[in-house]
TrEMBL record:
It comes from the Eukaryota. Gene3D superfamilies: Tetratricopeptide repeat domain. InterPro entries: PPR_At4g14850-like_plant, PPR_rpt, TPR-like_helical_dom_sf. Coiled coil: none annotated. One of its GO terms (biological process) is RNA modification. It comes from Rubus argutus (Southern blackberry). This is Pentatricopeptide repeat-containing protein.
Protein backbone atom coordinates (compact mmCIF):
# COMPACT_ATOMS: atom_id res chain seq x y z
CA UNK A 1 0.00 0.00 0.00
CA UNK A 2 2.79 2.41 0.84
CA UNK A 3 4.60 1.64 -2.41
CA UNK A 4 1.41 2.30 -4.38
CA UNK A 5 1.34 5.78 -2.87
CA UNK A 6 5.06 6.17 -3.60
CA UNK A 7 5.90 6.37 0.12
CA UNK A 8 9.19 4.76 1.04
CA UNK A 9 10.07 3.71 4.60
CA UNK A 10 12.95 5.60 6.13
CA UNK A 11 16.13 4.03 7.44
CA UNK A 12 14.84 3.78 11.02
CA UNK A 13 11.69 1.98 9.89
CA UNK A 14 13.64 -0.51 7.79
CA UNK A 15 16.14 -1.28 10.50
CA UNK A 16 13.27 -1.75 12.97
CA UNK A 17 11.61 -4.22 10.61
CA UNK A 18 14.84 -6.14 10.18
CA UNK A 19 15.36 -6.24 13.92
CA UNK A 20 11.80 -7.44 14.50
CA UNK A 21 12.13 -10.15 11.87
CA UNK A 22 15.36 -11.43 13.36
CA UNK A 23 13.91 -11.29 16.89
CA UNK A 24 10.92 -13.36 15.84
CA UNK A 25 13.26 -15.91 14.32
CA UNK A 26 10.58 -16.71 11.79
CA UNK A 27 12.74 -19.15 9.88
CA UNK A 28 9.82 -20.74 8.08
CA UNK A 29 9.14 -17.38 6.48
CA UNK A 30 12.77 -16.69 5.67
CA UNK A 31 12.32 -16.68 1.91
CA UNK A 32 9.42 -14.23 2.07
CA UNK A 33 11.38 -11.95 4.39
CA UNK A 34 14.41 -12.13 2.12
CA UNK A 35 12.17 -11.11 -0.77
CA UNK A 36 10.77 -8.25 1.31
CA UNK A 37 14.30 -7.09 2.15
CA UNK A 38 15.24 -7.36 -1.53
CA UNK A 39 12.27 -5.15 -2.37
CA UNK A 40 13.24 -2.60 0.26
CA UNK A 41 16.88 -2.42 -0.82
CA UNK A 42 15.91 -2.24 -4.51
CA UNK A 43 13.36 0.48 -3.75
CA UNK A 44 16.01 2.48 -1.94
CA UNK A 45 18.49 1.98 -4.77
CA UNK A 46 16.15 3.22 -7.48
CA UNK A 47 15.36 6.28 -5.39
CA UNK A 48 19.03 7.24 -5.12
CA UNK A 49 19.56 5.92 -1.60
CA UNK A 50 22.35 3.45 -2.37
CA UNK A 51 24.11 3.56 0.99
CA UNK A 52 20.85 2.80 2.77
CA UNK A 53 20.20 -0.08 0.37
CA UNK A 54 23.63 -1.46 1.20
CA UNK A 55 22.88 -1.10 4.90
CA UNK A 56 19.65 -3.09 4.48
CA UNK A 57 21.64 -5.80 2.68
CA UNK A 58 24.12 -6.08 5.56
CA UNK A 59 21.34 -6.00 8.15
CA UNK A 60 19.65 -8.80 6.25
CA UNK A 61 22.87 -10.79 6.56
CA UNK A 62 23.09 -10.03 10.31
CA UNK A 63 19.50 -11.23 10.71
CA UNK A 64 20.55 -14.59 9.32
CA UNK A 65 18.79 -14.22 5.98
CA UNK A 66 20.77 -15.74 3.12
CA UNK A 67 20.95 -13.54 0.02
CA UNK A 68 20.19 -15.12 -3.33
CA UNK A 69 21.14 -14.17 -6.88
CA UNK A 70 18.36 -11.59 -7.01
CA UNK A 71 19.51 -9.98 -3.74
CA UNK A 72 23.04 -9.69 -5.04
CA UNK A 73 21.89 -8.23 -8.36
CA UNK A 74 19.82 -5.58 -6.58
CA UNK A 75 22.64 -4.52 -4.30
CA UNK A 76 25.16 -4.42 -7.17
CA UNK A 77 22.79 -2.10 -9.04
CA UNK A 78 22.59 0.07 -5.91
CA UNK A 79 26.38 0.19 -5.67
CA UNK A 80 26.65 1.02 -9.37
CA UNK A 81 24.15 3.86 -9.23
CA UNK A 82 25.65 5.20 -6.01
CA UNK A 83 29.28 5.08 -7.15
CA UNK A 84 30.13 2.61 -4.38
CA UNK A 85 32.90 0.78 -6.24
CA UNK A 86 34.67 -0.81 -3.26
CA UNK A 87 31.38 -1.95 -1.76
CA UNK A 88 30.32 -3.41 -5.09
CA UNK A 89 33.56 -5.36 -5.39
CA UNK A 90 33.12 -6.62 -1.82
CA UNK A 91 29.58 -7.83 -2.53
CA UNK A 92 30.59 -9.43 -5.84
CA UNK A 93 33.48 -11.31 -4.24
CA UNK A 94 31.29 -12.41 -1.33
CA UNK A 95 28.95 -14.23 -3.71
CA UNK A 96 31.26 -17.23 -3.94
CA UNK A 97 33.35 -16.77 -0.82
CA UNK A 98 30.57 -16.22 1.72
CA UNK A 99 27.35 -17.37 0.11
CA UNK A 100 28.44 -20.11 -2.29
CA UNK A 101 26.68 -18.42 -5.19
CA UNK A 102 28.18 -18.64 -8.66
CA UNK A 103 28.06 -15.22 -10.37
CA UNK A 104 25.75 -15.17 -13.36
CA UNK A 105 25.92 -13.04 -16.50
CA UNK A 106 23.81 -10.27 -14.94
CA UNK A 107 26.23 -9.99 -11.99
CA UNK A 108 29.14 -9.55 -14.38
CA UNK A 109 27.08 -6.97 -16.26
CA UNK A 110 26.44 -5.07 -13.03
CA UNK A 111 30.16 -5.01 -12.33
CA UNK A 112 30.92 -3.67 -15.82
CA UNK A 113 28.29 -0.98 -15.24
CA UNK A 114 29.74 -0.19 -11.79
CA UNK A 115 33.26 0.22 -13.13
CA UNK A 116 32.10 2.07 -16.24
CA UNK A 117 29.99 4.60 -14.34
CA UNK A 118 32.95 5.25 -12.06
CA UNK A 119 35.14 5.99 -15.08
CA UNK A 120 37.30 2.91 -14.48
CA UNK A 121 37.10 1.96 -18.13
CA UNK A 122 40.35 0.04 -18.49
CA UNK A 123 39.45 -1.99 -15.40
CA UNK A 124 35.99 -2.64 -16.86
CA UNK A 125 37.52 -3.81 -20.15
CA UNK A 126 39.98 -6.10 -18.34
CA UNK A 127 37.11 -7.44 -16.24
CA UNK A 128 35.16 -8.33 -19.39
CA UNK A 129 38.21 -9.94 -20.97
CA UNK A 130 38.78 -12.12 -17.87
CA UNK A 131 35.17 -13.17 -17.33
CA UNK A 132 34.87 -16.97 -17.06
CA UNK A 133 31.69 -16.84 -19.15
CA UNK A 134 31.26 -15.36 -22.61
CA UNK A 135 30.08 -11.73 -22.44
CA UNK A 136 26.89 -10.99 -24.32
CA UNK A 137 25.98 -7.93 -26.37
CA UNK A 138 24.46 -6.19 -23.33
CA UNK A 139 27.79 -6.29 -21.51
CA UNK A 140 29.64 -4.96 -24.56
CA UNK A 141 27.05 -2.19 -25.02
CA UNK A 142 27.35 -1.28 -21.34
CA UNK A 143 31.11 -0.92 -21.72
CA UNK A 144 30.74 1.00 -24.99
CA UNK A 145 28.21 3.36 -23.41
CA UNK A 146 30.58 4.04 -20.52
CA UNK A 147 33.40 4.75 -22.99
CA UNK A 148 31.21 7.26 -24.82
CA UNK A 149 30.02 8.88 -21.56
CA UNK A 150 33.61 9.33 -20.41
CA UNK A 151 34.90 10.28 -23.87
CA UNK A 152 37.32 7.34 -24.03
CA UNK A 153 37.05 6.81 -27.77
CA UNK A 154 40.25 4.78 -28.10
CA UNK A 155 38.87 2.04 -25.87
CA UNK A 156 35.45 2.32 -27.51
CA UNK A 157 37.03 1.49 -30.88
CA UNK A 158 38.40 -1.82 -29.57
Amino acid sequence: MLLAKNVMPDEVTMLSVISAVSSLRALELGHKECTDMDSMSTGLAVHGRSREALRVFYEMKKAGLQPDHMSITGILVACSHGGLVEDGWRVFKSMKDEYGLEPMLEHYGCMVDLLGRAGLLCEAYEFVEKMPIRPNSVIWRTLLGACVNHNHLVLAEK
